[in-house]
Amino acid sequence: MTPPRARSRAAAPAAPADPSGPLHLVTGPEDLLAERAVRAVVEAARSADPATQLVDVLPGGYAKGDLAVHTSPSLFGESKVVVLHGLEDASDELITDARALVAAPVPDVVLVLRHRSGQRGKGLLDAARAAGAGVHQCAAITNDGERASFVVQELRRGGRRIEPDAVGALVEAVGQDLRELASACSQLMSDTLPPAGSGQAAPEIDAATVERYYGGRVEATGFKVSDAVLGGQTDTALALLRHALATGLDPVPIVAVLALGLRSLAKVSAAGTVRSADAARDLGMAPWQVDKARRQLRGWSEAGLAVAIQAVAAADLAVKGGLPDPARRAGDPLYAIERAVLDVGAARALHG
Questions:
Q1: Comparing C-alpha atoms, which of 188, 213, 192 is closest to residue 201?
Q2: Backbone dihedral region of 108: left (phi > 0), alpha (psi from -120 to 50 degrees) or beta?
Q3: Which of 14, 151, 259, 312 lies 20 to 30 Å (CA to CA) from residue 196?
Q4: Cα-based distances in Å from 291 to 50, 148, 190, 263, 337
């Protein structure tokens, strides 16, 4: 197969903005990252003046002139951090007052503009950039490659290391929610510390540790089933599946994980033999995901992948309440997912 034409290399991410400046723009839809950026600004201000007040301004119910009141000197002369939230939904009055404050800053006031997305308030954002605002980019994290990078950075911030296989296992087990990933990283770091006073260094987090804490989640079970059947271990996949279903797990996310695994195989197969890092960048995956898919692709043909994808699509329809086929009991979700695993296992043996 002909590999896709390589895309130009993405620009390196900008360095984090200095949180100690007087004007900040926190932009992008990822709220967890935005909250951390705002917190860093507040902490920087309070390190300079512990009495610094935090003033949160919400778009709802704003009246013209409120911002002037919020930024006026306090009775005891404390510094202030004024955070304007939800500027993508702000009224004309709030945007006008904010632009005036950007143009004429108030002494001892740090202004933070929080804007998630959209064109509303664009003139204010442009004015803030032109005035030298520190820009904190909080772009959405939308694929497993980015989530894997987030996990590595979280552990690094805590002074810890994590094995690549453990990163993959954690992302697969916890899922897409960034707050849950951050919480999982925090728990792993806390629960794997050596005994106090032992003098031992904190260990690198491995896949076995992740399995111990998160292996029972439905997402993790789905990935175990998917890995087994895609790797040619149909009997093992069926045993894992039946145990999961017997304990009450919903077949819908298991089918979704199986579909995700097949899509990854198809994408990586189409990428050809380019380096894992290059394929990962072009496909929006992590290098470990590309390597895993390439291992699973051994024994698969294009015809087999096509048949397997069709089988899982049919199962997806059935487990979500698709029209039943009495001849095959396709309307029975439990039967549908078992049938899909068997069909995928059989498809792996197809050639040509």
A1: 192
A2: left
A3: 151
A4: 50, 14, 30, 14, 27
- For 277, other C-beta atoms within 10 Å of its C-beta total 11
The answer to whether the beta carbons of residues 89 and 74 sit under 8 Å apart is: no
Q: Which residues pair with 111 in a beta bridge?
A: 23, 82
**Closest residue by Cα to residue 303 from 338, 275, 266, 253:** 266
Distance CA 128, CA 116 (A): 15
Q: What is residue 2's predicted lDDT score, i.e. its pLDDT?
A: 37
252, 111 contact by CB (below 8 A):
no
Structure tokens at 331: 């309307």
Asked whether the beta carbons of 225 and 337 are under 8 A apart, the reply is no
How far apart are alpha carbons 237 and 278 in whole angstroms? Answer: 31
CA 179-320-239 angle, 5° bins: 80
Rounded to whole angstroms, the Cα distance separating 134 from 73 reads 24
Q: DSSP labels for 29-96? A: S-HHHHHHHHHHHHHHHHHH-TT-EEEEE-STT--TTHHHHHTSPPTT---EEEEE--GGG--HHHHH
pLDDT at res. 9: 38
Distance of alpha carbon 132 from alpha carbon 227, whole angstroms: 50
Distance in angstroms (rounded) separating the CA atoms of residues 160 and 177: 22
| SS3 at position 328 | coil
Over the chain (352 residues), the average pLDDT of each successive run of 10 is 37 65 95 94 94 92 92 83 94 95 94 94 95 94 87 93 89 82 91 82 90 71 85 89 80 87 91 85 83 88 92 88 53 84 90 58
How many residues are given for the chain? 352
Cα distances (angstroms) measured from residue 253 to each of 1, 227, 235, 281, 329: 32, 15, 20, 26, 20
Please tell me the chain's helix, strand, coil percentages from 3-state DSSP, rounded to the nearest 5.
Answer: 55, 10, 35
Residue 159, C-beta contacts closer than 8 angstroms, at least 6 positions apart? 202
